[in-house]
Each structure stands twice: as C-alpha cells, then as structure tokens.
Amino acid sequence: MRPWSNRRWGILANALLHTPGETRVAIDAEISRDAVSLRIVDDGPGIPSDMLPRAFDKFVRLRRPDAGRDGGTGTGLGLAIAKGIAEAHRGAIALESPVADGRGTRVVLTFPREEVRS
Questions:
Q1: Which structural domain range is residue 38 located in?
Q2: Of 22, 69, 104, 116, most Cβ neighbours within 10 A?
Q3: 117 in a domain, yes or no?
Q4: How many domains, the chain?
C-alpha cells in the first residue's frame, strides 16, 4: 500500500469541505532522487496563524472567525491521523497558511524513496 493513498483524500476532502465553494484546490507531486512529495494547496481563507502550532494535535479543530460558533464540522483528528501515517512511513507532513495575499493553505506530504529490490 502506498503510504499517502488514504490520507491524500482525507486532506483533499478537508480542502474541499472547509473552504468556501469558489475556492480553488490544486494538487501536484514531485519526485526527486530521494523523496516523493505531494502538495495540496487551496486559495480559501486559510488557517489562523495562532492555530498553526497546534494543527497536528488530536481533537484540535482549526476554527476560522467566519466559520460560525461551532467552527465547522469534523472531529479534529484528520491532520493528527495524517501526521501519524506519514511518520509511520518515515515521512513528514507540513502545513503553511497563509500561502499568498493573506489567504490559502498548503499541505505537503513527503516520503523517502526506497530502493526497489527484486
């Protein structure tokens, strides 16, 4: 099983579910000699900077001021699970927000490439 196969859709679902309808979401991948990286970037309202240090903690819901009283839906486990899966496969996950013009979020999953043995 590819380590990113299940969580990429969870992170993509986050980008689609927790941003306004007109938000653009882009996905790209990069393969280098040593690693494979998958990037998911949106141009939505972003994540408040004071919440970024706790973004990968369990049960932390990344509330935005415009999300209403409950901060949106979700359990606050998605990014914590994604981090656990990435680390279990000797990978890493990074989160950046805002990305440009005070908006957007970028999630980068990076995994080491391994030698294929026959």
A1: 5-112
A2: 104
A3: no
A4: 1
